[in-house]
Amino acid sequence: MTSDTSTTPLANRGMPSGRCPFDPSAEYEQLREHEPIVRVRAPAGFDVWLVTRYEDARVVLGDGESFSNVDASSSHLMGDKDDLGGTPPPGVLLRYDGDEHARLRLRLAREFMVKRIAKLEPFVREVVTSHIDQLAEQSGPVDLYRAFGLPVPALVIGEILGVAEEDREEFERATAAQVDLSIPLEERQAAAAASAGFFAGLVRSKFENPGDDLLSRLILEPSESPVTFEELVGLSILLLAAGHDTTANMITLGTHALLQHPDQAAKLQDEHVMDTAVDEMIRYLSIVHNGVLRKAVRDVTVNGQQIRAGEHVAVVLESANRDTDFLPDADQLELERRSAHVGFGYGAHQCLGQHLARLELRIALPELFRRVKGLRVVTPEGEIPFKDDMLVYGIRELMVEWDEVVA
Ligand code: HEM
Q1: Cα–Cα distance between 20 and 39 in angstroms, integer?
Q2: What is the pLDDT of residues 115-145, one digit of tens each?
Q3: Is residue 293 classed as helix, strand or coil in its secondary structure?
Q4: If both were cysteines, with which of 124, 223, 235, 312 could 48 make a disulfide (CB 3.0 to 4.6 Å apart)?
Q5: Which of 92, 246, 289, 387 to probe ligand 1 with, by most ligand atoms within 8 A of CB?
Q6: How many CA atoms are closer than 13 Å to the CA of 324, on its beta-carbon side?
Q7: Does domain 27-405 have CATH number 3.40.1160.10?
Q8: Which residue's alpha carbon is at the smallest distance from atom 41 of ligand 1?
Q9: Which residue of 351, 356, 358, 363 sits with most ligand 1 atoms within 8 Å of its CB, as the best mutation to test the pocket?
Q10: Span from the CA of 278 to the centroid of ligand 1 (angstroms)
Q11: Which residue's CA is the nearest one to ligand 1's atom 1?
């Protein structure tokens, strides 16, 4: 598969599409088998090397010397390819490399380590409990995404950032609009601008009146290289964007998957199973599904394929996580199994919020299934609006009903 031509030929095909509904497109199995690193045209109109095998995914994501994160927004999918190669916004650590990335990542790592996240458990429980109590007060079909999936992580991230309760609806709206590909680009850009304005106000208020929250601690902490106002704004936007809709989609899509796998759902009340269940669901559902983007900064060969400096690579996590060379029966959901999946990414940029996501899901899913008896989806399967067109996969609306809600 080695290429020695001086220019890489243009791609003559697009990225696979058609996820159904928990499984990646069947094309990925073929690609893993026959063309594990293949040139395709991304929807935004530029070419990327698509990496579909688990081992290759780890090689690319683990090699920060050869692959840069400068373009690691999902611009290739969003259609705003003009942003490629541009200067990353301050504070958006996902798009920084090396020392610049490490500087912010290390400061934040303390906030997101297991011990500190564990302290949020009572708050997460309270939020989950109150939202299930609210379900109990309603009759008739309810949209689980809006009633439970979205508000739980929104309130938790709001608590971490120190967002006042009355302002939370505003930032929820702005974030949802930014990642919804069905909304025209100009409206998404307007939503992004509104969100930036909101967070600038929030950060200003923390400089003026610091409290017990992540932003205030970053401001107050003595450091030779203090985090700037602009970085704090960018960081807040990134944390909300990365931590809100992802977890909301995992709650909603995860509930649907569990309802379709009642044998697995029955295991949720077993504490031991919960040690592995959330990660297995992250692997199986792989909601960051369209490929995380990197740019080669030098010529490099991966699994025999030469990738030239300046070319882009999209690592398809949903395909890597279903690679049977990595995990036998990878297409099955088995909550008791443990694996080194890449659903949270891999390498220096591996998900910063993974312990938080685990905590939220570990509480939300078993509590929902324990308390809401006879939970069922009312929308016929063929009419469920899956978010194929969004950066993060999920369900736009999941109408459910139930028999009773117990204490
Ligand atoms: C189930 C939920 C989640 C999933 C599946 C997920 C997945 C991911 C993935 C795949 C990456 C790597 C992207 C890349 O390499 O280009 C990532 C990075 C990141 N995630 Fe998450 N995430 C989740 C929840 C969260 C939460 C709750 C937060 C924080 C509140 C968060 C914050 C971040 C940040 C800040 C990064 C960038 C880290 C860096 O560049 O060093 N994520 N996430």
Answers
A1: 23
A2: 999 999 999 999 999 999 999 999 879 999 9
A3: strand
A4: 312
A5: 246
A6: 8
A7: no
A8: 349
A9: 351
A10: 15
A11: 247
